[in-house]
Design a protein that fits this description.
About 15% of the residues lie in helices and about 25% in strands. The chain has about 350 residues and is of the alpha/beta class. A hairpin with a 2-residue loop joins β21 and β22. The longest helix is centred in the C-terminal third of the chain and has 26 residues. It folds into two domains: about 100 residues, MurE/MurF, N-terminal domain (Udp-n-acetylmuramoylalanyl-d-glutamate--2,6- Diaminopimelate Ligase, Chain: A, domain 1), CATH 3.40.1390.10; about 200 residues, Hexapeptide repeat proteins (UDP N-Acetylglucosamine Acyltransferase, domain 1, 3 Solenoid), CATH 2.160.10.10.
Length: about 350
């Protein structure tokens, strides 16, 4: 990769100091003075960069690796080239994430679009009744509504809209073009470009003259350290609240409907749709493009494979996949049977053509 002007390299940190901060073990103490400036993938890592591997499947990529250091489990040391210093870690993926935060702190939250001459742009509109703590940054064309409250260290990017009486905690980032209404937001929350928080949920009742709109008077409550991806939508509750638990990370283009409750430290990949009044436990992982039916319960620690259709309750700790979603062993067995029948039909067609 050419020089990256968007996220330039770190001024440099010694490998010894980096190992200490990551809680990793430096195998060769003589390599401790090597300077690390950036992260990189294994196959094209260069001097001054650090990378990581998780299995022996990375052996071929290591053939072109010129990194100054690599993070890996001790069991993989034998496949690492001699010129690459090794940092032993029982969780190399997590350690690499920590290294990225140390070396590229500016990439950990959306950056401002403009270079502000003042913390609050004169081209932003801020209602006189809004309350801003010190050190809030607000870019041009952002709108802060009546009675809104924003905590110190929070960044409101260009064109974002913060509705009336919305409360946003400290150290948050609301990226360009996002809109937030009817919401209470904790500390350290990141909401990416174009996300929509707090709009009407989809609620209608059939009537003699067509569909009648059901009033939506709930809120969205987003707890601390949640991250919500670009163009994701989180509807406010109907007569209850939509809640997203502490530490949960939601990808781009996800739909969270009204009254949904998502637990703590969940991971929800792109394209997922969660229908109304579903309750999701703590530590749940949902693969991309899955659909979650409304009014069901998904237990703590559940894992749902990508492109699944979840139509009923899922017990805690289960691994589900498929359409309709079912225990993973059943899904894989059914998939194997389908593939076998498909192969048999293809073979018969081939024989008939002969």
């Amino acid at each position: 990769m050419d020089q990256n002007d968007f996220y330039p390299p770190h001024d440099g940190i010694s490998l010894r100091e980096l190992a200490n901060r990551l809680g990793a073990e430096l195998r060769d103490a003589d390599a401790g003075n090597r300077i690390i400036r950036s992260v990189a993938p294994v196959s094209r890592a260069k001097p001054g960069q650090i990378c990581y591997i998780l299995s022996r499947k990375n052996r071929e990529e290591l053939a072109t690796c010129e990194a100054s250091a690599i993070l890996c489990d001790a069991a993989l040391a034998s496949i690492v080239p001699e010129h690459v210093a090794i940092l032993f870690s029982k969780s190399p993926h997590a350690a690499f994430a920590m290294a990225g935060e140390i070396l590229h702190p500016q990439a950990m939250r959306p950056t401002l679009v403009t270079s502000l001459l003042a913390a609050i742009s004169p081209m932003a509109f801020i209602d006189p009744t809004a309350k801003l703590e010190p050190d809030v940054e607000i870019e041009p064309m952002a709108v802060i509504g009546a009675g809104a409250e924003i905590g110190s260290g929070t960044r409101i990017a260009a064109g974002a809209i913060i509705g009336s009486n919305v409360k946003i905690g400290r150290g948050c980032t609301i990226a360009s073009g996002a809109s937030i209404t009817a919401a209470l937001i904790g500390n350290g929350v990141i909401i990416h470009n174009g996300a929509r928080i707090g709009q009407d949920g989809f609620g209608f009742a059939p009537g003699p003259r067509g569909m009648l709109k059901i009033v939506q008077i709930g809120r969205v409550i987003i707890q601390d350290n949640v991250e919500i991806g670009a163009n994701t939508t989180v509807d406010r509750g109907a007569m209850d609240d939509t809640v997203i638990g502490e530490g949960t990370k939601i990808d781009n283009l996800v739909q969270v409907a009204h009254n949904v409750r998502i637990g703590r430290h969940c991971g929800i990949a792109a394209g997922v749709g969660i229908a109304g009044s579903t309750h999701i436990g703590d530590g749940v992982l949902i693969g991309g493009a899955s659909g979650i039916n409304g009014h069901i319960k998904i237990g703590d620690g559940v894992q749902i494979a990508a492109m699944s259709g979840v139509v009923g309750d899922v017990p805690p700790g289960a691994r589900y996949g498929g359409v309709p979603a079912r225990p993973m062993k059943d899904f894989l067995r059914d998939l194997a049977a389908i593939m076998s029948r498909t192969d048999e039909r293809a073979k018969r067609r081939g024989d008939n053509n002969d």
